[in-house]
Amino acid sequence: MTSHPASETTRVLHGAAALPALGVIAADGEDATKFLQGQLTQDVALLGLSEARLAAFCSAKGRMLASFVVFKRTHDSVLLVCNRDLLAPTLKRLQMFVLRAKVKLSDVSDSHAVYGLAGDAVPAALPAALWSHLAEGGASTVRLYPGAGTPRALWVGPVGSTPAGGALSLAQWQFLDAASGVATLSQPVVEAFVPQMLNYESVGGVNFKKGCYPGQEVVARSQFRGTLKRRAYVVQADAEVHTGQEVFHPADAEQPVGMVVQAGADPAGGWRAIISMQTSAADGQPLRAGDATLALLPLPYPLLDDI
Predict the structure, then answer these.
(1) Helices (H) and strands (E) in the chain, counts
(2) DSSP tag of 6
(3) What are the CA-CA distances from residue 110 to residues 82, 105, 186, 267 (Å)?
(4) Structural domains in the chain plus CATH codes
(5) Computed from CA positions of residues 200, 204, 208, 214, in that sequence, does the dihedral angle turn out positive or negative?
(6) Hey, which bits of the chain come out as E strands?
(7) Can you spell out the DSSP letters for 233-280?
C-alpha cells in the first residue's frame, strides 16, 4: 500500500441518530432465502439468525444497483436495509425475478425505524464480531465496522420505538459512516462501480464460493484475473465534498481519476469522505474534488489480496 500523508485519530462519539435516508425491504415466504441467494453477492443461505450480511445487488454487467445490510427475523423472513433513494427501483427490479418463487417482496419502511448507534449506545449484549445480529425486544441490532475508532451498529425496530442511549446528530453519524470506509450506495453513484471498486470483497460484501447471481461472472473475473485497478479510499478534505463529485490528480486537471462515494462533515473541521479511484492515483500527491484538497488516510481495514 502507498504511504498516506494524513493520519487518523481516534475520536469516540456516543449516542443514537435517526437515519431517515435508509429504508427497509422485506422478503417473506418459504422461498425468501432461496430467492435472495440467486440475486445478491452474499451467501444468504448460510445466514444464521445471529448474523447479518453486507451485500450488493448488481446489473448483468456487474455494476452495483444497490447495497444492503441483510438479516433474518425468522428463517422465512429477511430484511434488507438500503438507501431510500434506491429502494423503489431496486424493489421493482427484484420483483421482476420472483416468477414462481414463494416469496413476497415489500417496502416496509413506513413500519420500521432505522437508527445508527455509536459508542456506548451500542448494546453490550451485541457480540463483538462484525456483522453480528442481535434480536431483542422486537428490534434488531447489527454490528457495523467502526468509524474513527468508534464502535457502531445499525438498529431497526418498530416505527415509534427508539433505541436506548443519548442523542447523536445525523452529521456526526455521517462522519463516522464515511470514516468507516464501508460505503452505502446511493442514487448519484448507482451503476458506477463493481463491488470491488468499493472494497466490498474485503469488508464481507462478496462471497466467491456461492452460486450465480446477476453480474457474478464480471465480479468473479475482476477478482480472479487480478484486474482491480480501482479501489475505495478514505480521505480528509479541507472543504465540503459531496457524493458523485469527480476527483482529480495533479498530473491531469481534465481527466478525473475517481469519484466521491459519500461524505460527512468532520466535527474537528473539514470533511471525511470515501472515494473510489484508480489505484495508480494513490501516490501521495494531493487530490482535488471541486474546491477541496483531499489527503489520503490509511484504510481502517486490510484489503484482501487479488487472487
Answers:
(1) 4, 16
(2) S
(3) 14, 15, 19, 31
(4) 187-297 (2.40.30.160)
(5) negative
(6) 15-18, 22-28, 52-58, 64-74, 77-83, 104-107, 112-118, 133-136, 139-147, 150-158, 230-237, 246-247, 258-265, 271-278, 287-289, 292-297
(7) EEEEESS---TT-EEBBTTBSSS--EEEEEEEE-TTSSEEEEEEEEGG
DSSP 158: E
Q: Identify the bridge partners of residue 54 per DSSP, sorted by sequence position.
A: 69
- Grid look-up 474537528 returns 268
d(CA 35, CA 106): 14
| 9 pLDDT tier (thresholds 50, 70, 90) | low
C-alpha cell at position 154: 445499525
Mean of pLDDT values over 184-189: 98
Q: Count CB-CB contacts under 10 A for residue 75.
A: 12
Q: pLDDT band for position 15 (50/70/90)?
A: very high
Q: Which of 272, 210, 55 is nearest to 142 (CA)?
A: 55
Q: How many residues does the chain have?
A: 307
